[in-house]
Amino acid sequence: MRTVFKTSYDADINLFRHGAQRGWYILLLVVMLVLPLGVSSFAIGEMTNLLIWSIACMGLMILVGQTGQASLGHAAFLAIGCYANVLLQERLGLPFILSFPLAGLIAGIAGALIARPMTKLHGIYLAIGTLAIAILVDDFIVIAAPLTNGVIGLFAPDIDIFGLSFNRYANPERLYYLILGITLLVVLAYRNLQRSPLGRSFAAIRDSEISAQAMGVNVARTKAVAFGISAGITGLAGALMGHFAGIFNNETFNIIISIQLLLAIVIGGLGTIHGAFFGAAVVALLPQAISMTRDLLNQVLGGGSIAIPGLESAIFGAILIAFILFEPSGIYGRWFKIRTYFELFPFYRRDMFRRQKSYLKTERMR
Amino acid sequence: MDVLQLIVSGLANGCVYGLVAMGFVLIYKATEAVNFAQGDFMMLGAFICLGLTNPQFMGLPFWISVPIAIAAMGAFGYALDLVVLRRMFGQSQVAVIILTIALGFVLRFAAGLIWGHEPISLQTPMAGQYVRFGGLVLGLNELIIILVTVALTVILYFYFNRTKLGVAMQASSQNQLAAYYMGIPVKRIHSLIWALAGMVAAVAGILFASKGSIDPSIGLLGIKAFAAAVIGGFGSLPGALLGGLIVGLLEPFASRYIAAGYSQIMPYLLLFLILVFRPHGILAQVHQKKV
Q1: What ipTM was reported for this prediction?
Q2: The total number of structural domains that make up chain A
Q3: Which residue segment(s) compose the domain that A229 sits in?
Q4: By C-alpha distance, which of A256, A238, A241 is closest to A79?
Q5: Which of residues 296-315 of A touch B (CB under 8 A)?
Q6: Domain presence at residue A359
């Protein structure tokens, strides 16, 4: 077990807790940078998809993990970001480098505006409200067909930055590096947010709204800001998803995607950046893993290729049920426990991370 | 006459929404948890009844398979609480919401495996029969849906307010610890309430199936029923029915008088407005405690 001696006030808010931790993250970055040299272009595409999903998961994580507000409607912000990005490029002729941040901004403003009347709600009411928003945005895309082309959908042009073109098929490595850079920026922004006063007030609201209020946090405004930031980052992910998919319509961002996003961060581990990445890995790689397993089974058993509809979401659901029952703190929580076990080697006790028993009281009588 | 016809079919639809919404409310009222799989419970109930009744499966008489389906769903609800949800005791609401969403995925998959994904219609004795009131032609099934729903609502209302078990259910919801002190077996009460919700869902499913064909994805109707429960006031049984009726009536009139595309968003728009202006629904259950 490493003991960190804090010798300056900055030690509490440093980006890394100690030198070894910094070393590991630099190693991870190096691995990510050299990855395209060693793997096939298919694998690079999958990694790119994973990174895009991680950005979306981080967006939702700020709201759910950091501020403690449930949202079942984040696909709406994916859609807003995606459509805003492509429409700004096609209708106004803006370059990607402008339209991409603007798309995030538009999604963020939309999120903050929507959140403003909903900050009165919490718990399930908030979940339902956001669910309604996801459905409304889906239908709105169909209604606004002259702009959004309705159910037929839109084509996303290739990303073009100062003459450099990024295409998923023509040059997957370039797209991978671009998205890796964006992911890195988002992680840095997230990390900085966590250690800023705003991030602290998010955590205060998550842990207890009443005590946050007593500490002088403006709960309604902070929640709206959290919604805005979360929607903004999700919007960025949506813009990238649009470019990655190439073609999209209202169905691309349906209610199932919102739910999957929420499930992903729960599987990954709520409240941590690691959790966003682990969850994204599960969501992004599960379909491939299932189809590979199926191919393998078919080879071994010699059967034809049988497609079972709904298998993917069923396996996803089963994994999720197992996690909520047996490891509510997600993949990251499990990893943390294993790490602690080895750090403290002979002294780890089973009840170290035991949850406290609690009893529910009704929300209806306050 | 046209308007009356729309009203009756809207009411019949609304009753199904109301019944599913009531399942939400039952569980919410007693365990403070929200069961997002309620729509899938309804689907499962409908399919169990269909599997027992339809000739290509078991071919039992309709009036025998209905009670079996209801009992099976009750047992399913009880077992589900016993095996899965009891472990969630005392955890946050959001965890339960996510758990039940995942459960919905699994149920939909299981139903698809057993009964296939093609729409099938339940063969009921009421199908295709009509009742004439003057110039008005009403489907017998629609009338039965309305009657059954009203009867069930009244029974549940009295159950919660007059019987010992019903009051115990309310008590265990309001304060679990205090309910323990009063000698209420809170965990068994929770299992019973899940059983009850399963049974109500089975009734809703059978009624829904009597109106048209069903497939495993009808569970998504749960979202609309959810909207209904919130519009009426989450935590209030009459409110759930009221909300269901409002949504049910809103739909046919919206699709008739408002341009296509706009009409199907009306329930959600109403939900959104209710959440903004009257967050706890029309028949609110929230009482501010006086200091």
Answers
A1: 0.79
A2: 1
A3: 37-350
A4: A238
A5: 308-311, 313-314
A6: no
